[in-house]
Specification:
The complex is a heterotrimer of chains A (about 250), B (about 290) and C (about 120). Chain A is built from ten helices and seven strands. With about 250 residues, chain A is an alpha+beta fold. Chain A folds into three domains: about 100 residues, Beta-grasp domain (Ubiquitin-like (UB roll), Roll); about 90 residues, Orthogonal Bundle (Fumarate Reductase Iron-sulfur Protein, Chain B, domain 2); about 40 residues, no CATH class. A five-stranded mixed beta sheet of chain A has the order 3-2-7-5-6, with helices on one face. A two-stranded antiparallel ribbon of chain A has the order 1-4. In chain B, the strands form two sheets. In chain B, strands 2-1-3-4 form a four-stranded parallel beta sheet. In chain B, strands 6-5-7-8 form a four-stranded parallel beta sheet, sandwiched between helices. Chain B has about 290 residues and is of the alpha/beta class. The longest helix of chain B has 17 residues. Chain C has two domains: about 90 residues, Fumarate Reductase Iron-sulfur Protein, Chain B, domain 2; about 25 residues, no CATH class. Classes of the chains: A alpha+beta (about 250), B alpha/beta (about 290), C mainly alpha (about 120). Chains B and C meet through helix 1, helix 9 and helix 10 of B and helix 1, helix 5, helix 6 and helix 7 of C.
């Protein structure tokens, strides 16, 4: 995370809104010890401690996948992973937040591809290096069956793979745990694109509507509305508010 | 349907993706012979090749996962025999299974790793290849043949993985004969040729394509010169390498490379899943079909 | 003996000193005609502690078909030792093949890709 440490006096023994003494926990960020209020997410706790994040942070709601982090808890060997905006601080936690995970993004033209496993393997040959250690699945903050999705690609079932990784945030945590050096997020993106373009059933009503628009079915109506906007914008607003959405 | 035999089934990636007709015709044949086969609900790539280094436990994980799955389903279905079509899957799964049975240290190592995922393996699964299964049912095969195979001169090609190392061999590794017997039971003329256990070149295609084409060409020509018009294989990788060699030949000999179950399905009259070009080639060798005969 | 040779012995788990150079491995090796150094010669080099063994092309042409392993009268397991020689390089993270150079990779069956990845990439 590209960040600036801003010096800030931390007042110990802060009181909460009701005047009660706030609970504090100790965390270690990049090896340095901080006392932070309990109950905060890692991201907020670090900001409370004085860090300002200008990269490696995004939606703060667990959807963008920008604030990937790894941590260990006291008394256990496990290297745990999560999103800094979704993980609550624990006393004695050791934390590293990753500003960016190096994954080269291959370029391809989706129009020229076919929805086949061979296409995925040509662009991402490392998929065939999977040794099924399951480290990826263990690392996924979304709880996806990452290893199984990679396996579905190997056996040519792109439809199933695309379905399994629909909720991928591209945080990249699986990729840094992977001994086969698979670029999961981009592999899955390609699989979903191939699925969307070539495998998923086409939405007929959308195609029909696009055709109607192209044929000029709505030109007259649109002209009328544009004319109305020019003459009486309030009437147009009223019309918009009162329109029948279901129709 | 009368059930003569029960197996759990491990398909393998290539059978699902690259050798679909191999699997489909195999299932047609199993159905006819009364062999009950249940595909594992979940399975993982076996690794395709057995990791030979003594300290390379991680590479066995895929196989172990599938063995565990088979063990769990085995309790439900009353059979711990895990059937494979692909001999590379057979070879890898069998060797991993054997290693774990013989080496408690490695088993313990893997168990400790998989404990995180609540998985354990109790060594109850037996890995089986399709060749000996068909061999056991050879009499039933004979009874179910409906087409005249006398015009088909089939060279059985075993390759490496069903036979080597000898501890996992499905037959005598130096002079295998079970595929010969199966084909003979199916009523075709069997052509023995010297390269039946020779290596096609396997994964070396990725490093030295010339060597693979050289080896596979030798196998095709060997079978052809011995008088065969059909080269019968059980392995998707052999099939790929043989086709690579065949397509690179300037003068292509009139011999077809096909999967064993495709040929059996044809002779049993189970035509639904035989690729059309193979069906028409075999029709050309069958006397009862118009324009056929040798 | 050097570190490289020690490593080969250790990860193969085999005893090269059992080999009496009968040449069976070379005789049965299907890929021998494409090898720069023949299987029994590679084993001899390891017996003599020659570390240039890691530069030999032949170990990469070995298809692990187990023909030599099965027939070796002294149970040396040449094919298993060749895997160890390959791993000495691969375990440093060095790839022996460039996927981009593989012709018609899209058509290669998964089984071919997985085996090649396991045998040729680190």
């Amino acid at each position: 995370m590209a960040q600036v440490e801003v010096s800030k006096k931390v007042e110990p023994g802060l009181r909460g809104e009701g005047g009660e003494k706030k609970k504090f926990v100790t965390i270690y960020y990049m090896g340095k010890k901080y006392r932070v209020p309990a109950g905060l997410t890692v991201l907020k706790a670090l900001e409370w401690a004085g860090y300002r994040f200008i990269r490696g942070v995004g939606c703060r709601g667990g959807f963008c996948g920008a604030c990937a982090m790894a941590y260990r808890l006291p008394g256990e060997y496990k290297l745990r992973t999560g999103l800094a905006c979704q993980t609550v601080v624990v006393d004695g936690m050791y934390i590293a937040v990753f500003p960016y995970l190096a994954v080269t993004k291959p370029r391809y033209n989706i129009e020229e591809l076919k929805p086949e496993a061979g296409v995925v393997l040509k662009i991402f040959p490392e998929v065939s290096r999977c040794i099924e250690c399951n480290a990826c699945t263990k690392a996924c903050p979304q709880g996806l069956e990452v290893m199984d999705a990679i396996q579905e690609i190997l056996r040519g079932n792109l439809e199933k793979a695309a379905d399994m990784v629909f909720d991928c945030l591209s945080c990249g945590l699986c990729s840094i745990r992977c001994p086969a050096e698979i670029r999961h997020a981009w592999v899955f993106q390609l699989v979903r694109r191939l699925y969307g373009k070539y495998i998923a059933p086409k939405a007929k009503h959308v195609e029909e509507r696009v055709k109607e628009i192209e044929e000029g079915k709505y030109d007259e109506e649109l002209d009328r509305l544009v004319e109305l906007a020019r003459k009486d914008i309030e009437a147009l607003k009223k019309m918009y508010m009162e329109r029948d959405i279901e129709k | 349907m009368m059930v003569n035999d029960k197996y759990l089934y491990f398909p393998g990636c290539s059978v699902k993706r690259d050798a679909k007709s191999y699997e489909k015709t195999a299932f047609d044949v199993f159905g006819k012979l009364g062999i009950w086969v249940k595909e594992l609900d979940k399975w993982w790539c076996c690794g395709a090749t057995f990791g030979l280094a003594v300290d390379d436990v991680a590479r066995h994980l895929g196989s172990v996962r599938s063995l565990i799955q088979a063990e769990q389903e085995g309790a439900r279905y009353g059979t711990y025999k895990l059937l494979t079509l692909c001999p590379m899957c057979y070879n890898t799964l069998k060797r991993v299974n054997l290693l774990l049975k013989r080496d408690p240290g490695k088993l313990d190592n893997i168990r400790r790793y998989l404990r995180d995922e609540n998985l354990d393996y109790k060594l109850s699964v037996e890995v089986v290849h399709v060749l000996p299964v068909l061999y056991e049912h050879r009499d039933l095969i004979r009874k179910n043949i409906v087409r005249d195979g006398s015009g088909i001169r089939a060279a059985p090609y075993y390759g490496c993985t069903p036979l080597r190392p000898r501890e996992v061999a499905v037959d005598n590794p130096e002079a295998p004969s079970i595929m010969h017997v199966v084909l003979k039971s199916a009523g075709v003329r069997v052509v023995d040729f010297p390269f039946k256990t020779e290596c096609c070149g396997a994964y070396v295609y990725a490093y030295n394509r010339k060597a693979v084409i050289g080896k596979s060409s030798m196998i095709i020509l060997g079978a052809y010169k011995a008088g065969a018009n059909v080269l019968v294989t059980v392995c998707p990788l052999c099939h790929y390498n043989l086709m690579l060699a065949y397509n690179s030949m300037k003068h292509k000999p009139p011999i077809k490379i096909i999967y064993l179950t495709e040929l059996l399905a044809y002779l049993m009259g189970l035509d639904d899943n035989i690729p059309p070009e193979i069906k028409s080639f075999l029709d050309g060798l069958t006397p009862s079909v118009e324009g056929g005969g040798d | 003996m050097g570190d490289v040779i020690d490593k080969i012995i250790k990860i193969s788990g085999r005893n090269v000193n059992l080999c009496y150079q009968c040449g069976m491995c070379t005789a049965v090796c299907p890929m021998a005609e494409y090898m720069d150094v023949k299987p029994h010669q590679i084993i001899r080099m390891i017996q003599l502690g020659d570390e240039r063994v890691v530069e030999i092309d032949a170990v990469w042409v070995c298809a692990s078909c187990m023909a030599c392993v099965d027939r070796c009268p002294r149970d040396v397991g040449p094919g298993i030792i060749f895997e160890a020689v390959r791993l000495v390089s691969l375990r440093k993270g060095i790839d022996k093949i460039d996927y981009k150079a593989i012709e018609d990779l899209e058509a290669a069956p998964t089984l071919a890709m997985v085996t090649a990845s396991r045998k040729y990439t680190g």
